[in-house]
Amino acid sequence: MIKLHDKYFQPFISEEEIEAAIQKISAAIAADYKDDCPIFVTVLNGAFMFASDLMKAYPHPCQISFVKLSSYKGLSSTGIVKSLLEVGEEVNGRSVIILEDIIDTGRTIKELVHIFSNIEVKEFKIASLFYKPEAYDGEYPIDYIGMEIPNKFIVGYGLDYDELGRNLKEVYQLKEKEMINLVLFGKPGAGKGTQAEFLKAHYNLVHISTGDVFRYNIKNGTELGNLAKSYMDQGDLVPDEVTINMLANEVNNNPDANGFIFDGFPRTIAQAEALDDLLATKDMAIHATLALEAEDDILVERLLKRGLESGRTDDQDEGKIRNRFNEYNEKTAPLLDFYKNQSKLHSVNGIGTIEEITKRLQSVVDTL
Ligand code: AMP
After folding, report:
1. Looking at ligand 1, which atom is closest to the CA of residue 235?
2. 62 in the same domain as 192
3. Distance 230 CA to ligand 1 centre (A)
4. Any catalytic annotation for residue 240?
5. Residues 219, 82: one domain?
6. Residue 127's domain spans which residues?
7. DSSP letters along 273-310, please?
8. Best mutation site among 214, 289, 310 for ligand 1, i.e. most ligand atoms within 8 A of its Cβ?
9. Domain count along the chain
């Protein structure tokens, strides 16, 4: 991976593939023009490497000339095409073959066709090393194509991102922002909330704790809070429908997130399936489920202590705590197999100091 200005790019087209594409174009032009002496009108700056290698590969007499237009600024075309270097008289009456590094929207080609419509040439052909069929408006036929590529921003082999990257021997593509979506899994008291704070800060993620959202709503006396309260007071799970809708809202309210930590969700198979469906509609997925493991007796001790410090009523009564464990064993534990079958489950020892457990989690996330 390389960095140009503020963006990262990853290898996309190798030197060998570029070489093969040039040989292909050269052979096709040579077959059509072996009895002629075409003039390769190279579109600067991007096509200079292509022109050079094509000339070297071309087996018959040929000439070269240059034209300079400008349409790209940054990552997307501005649509403004300026003529910076005019074509000379040398093209008059000649077989002209335009050499383009890449044909994208077709604006540059349109301008070139316009320029050449005022010049008497014998023939006018277009050759492009790379061609984006999804982006091209298709107005003019492209006579020689080296390689079709998807609609990605590329650099290297003459092509630039704000003038950098032209010297690269191979072609790189823009690395899309990669999300990390984590499920933090474990019984009440396993340390999900504590560890979520670290993961959130370290990986710049949005932390969604369904328990926190419910408590916030209860505190503010919202409709959702009133609905959830009776279940929470008993240590029962809030019905799936309510919880799933709430979670979908939380995700939808964070469209620019680098990723999410789901803490306390999903707690049932239905919730896990709903989460997968929701993420799939956004071209997202869960990358890992981190299961914090600890024995019940240790957890009860932790929760009772937390109950005293936080005033959380569901943490103060051992009966309610044990009921939450029962809910977990019955409804949530089956999710371990759900994520295991997707090869996403990572068990992490939840006993130790906060820092020790943090390290264990980090070593898992860093390998994703
Ligand atoms: P927590 O803070 O994660 O321990 O959650 C406290 C309580 O909120 C639970 O005992 C449930 O009553 C309710 N709750 C939190 N998350 C969920 C969920 N995903 N599904 C159903 N109920 C939940």
Report:
1. 10
2. no
3. 12
4. no
5. no
6. 2-174
7. HHHHHHHHHTT----EEEEEE--HHHHHHHHHHHHHHH
8. 214
9. 2
Annotation says 101 is catalytic: yes
The 8-class DSSP code of residue 241 comes to: H
Predicted model pTM: 0.59
213 shares a domain with 353: yes
Is there a cis peptide before residue 188, judged by omega within 30 degrees of 0?
no
| CATH code of the domain in which 116 resides | 3.40.50.2020
324 pocket-lining for ligand 1 (C-beta < 6 Å): yes
Give the Å distance between the CA of 210 and the centre of ligand 1. 6
| DSSP 8-state class, residue 331 | I
Per-residue pLDDT of the chain (368 residues; tens, 9 = 90+): 888 987 878 999 999 999 999 999 999 999 999 999 999 999 999 999 999 999 999 999 999 999 998 654 555 555 556 666 778 888 999 999 999 999 998 888 988 998 899 899 999 999 999 999 998 988 899 999 999 999 999 999 999 999 999 999 999 998 776 789 999 999 999 999 999 999 999 888 999 999 999 999 999 999 999 999 999 998 899 999 999 999 999 999 998 888 999 999 999 999 999 999 999 888 789 999 999 999 999 999 999 999 999 888 889 999 999 999 999 999 999 999 999 999 999 999 999 999 999 999 999 998 88
- Residue 113, burial from CB neighbour count under 10 angstroms (0-12, 13-18, 19+): middle
- Is 100 among the catalytic positions? yes
**End residue of a domain, out of 155, 174, 193:** 174
Is the distance from the beta carbon of residue 131 to the nearest atom of ligand 1 less than 6 Å?
Answer: no
Q: Which of 9, 50, 94, 100 is catalytic?
A: 100
Helix (H) / strand (E) element for 192: namely helix 192-203
